[in-house]
């Protein structure tokens, strides 16, 4: 798909022409957690030493003795998309679901499908999700928690889950950004939980030209962000054929759009963490914006500003703000004066 390829080429321009020169070599990076079907590290996309170093943790919430190996493919797809969009982020992987055909528990609920009529991710019990969310968002000095900045959830329940609600009530602090897939059932079911929860960044799917996918729930004011999620090729599990480390699959769904959006959010956070030694004023501006962009309101202000309105949805176009033809100083000034100043009086 040439449109999808071009979309990712613009993301590469952002990384190479805006961020690469000023990326911090040491110290804390943006932390992203992906709770899904795990990851297959045998795939060639993870063969680079630096990439493997940035996969900071793999926890198997289905099997305490396991290593989070993805036997389905969906999780590997999601993790590789986060890595492709945000190649400097530290990634934490939680295996909370497995393939529907693998003899899973009755409580396992919906896996994203690569077929033309995508369905949501089949999840394990909400109790396991409670553990995983606490692990991802909990303070780092407690029980080995990850304390991530960004949490990507490519799943949803048709109704409110008390266990997941309890986990989010307990751990969702104002400086934690959570993105969740809206659902792939159109108006039949509406927005899934936890994407329907206040304070969650709800993600719908679009094609490479920004046109919304027909399986999205209806767009609501203030809850209508979309991003590329159609016909996206990314890494797939090598399970069953370890001699094929370059395994890939094209996928469609809001569960595909969500890790891409999580990657964009990570880039925006990374922007505020850049080291700009030759321009202390710009670096100070970026640091000043950092805590604001870590909040739901601040990040939504920036994401909304970079959107194009398409058929009732706000399609995220990252290069509308992260313009690779502009300097870091110009982008920082724009974000401060035209986006955050309007929202926070900065």
From TrEMBL:
InterPro entries: Peptidase_S8/S53_dom, Peptidase_S8/S53_dom_sf, Peptidase_S8_Ser-AS, Peptidase_S8_subtilisin-like, Peptidase_S8_subtilisin-rel. Gene3D superfamilies: Peptidase S8/S53 domain (3.40.50.200). GO terms for biological process: proteolysis. The active site is at 36 (charge relay system), 74 (charge relay system), 255 (charge relay system). Residues 27-270 form the Peptidase S8/S53 domain. It comes from the Eukaryota. One of its GO terms (molecular function) is serine-type endopeptidase activity. Keywords: Hydrolase, Protease, Serine protease. Pfam families: Peptidase_S8 (PF00082). Coiled coil: none annotated. Belongs to the peptidase S8 family. This is Peptidase S8/S53 domain-containing protein. It comes from Podospora aff. communis PSN243. The lineage of its organism: Eukaryota, Fungi, Dikarya, Ascomycota, Pezizomycotina.
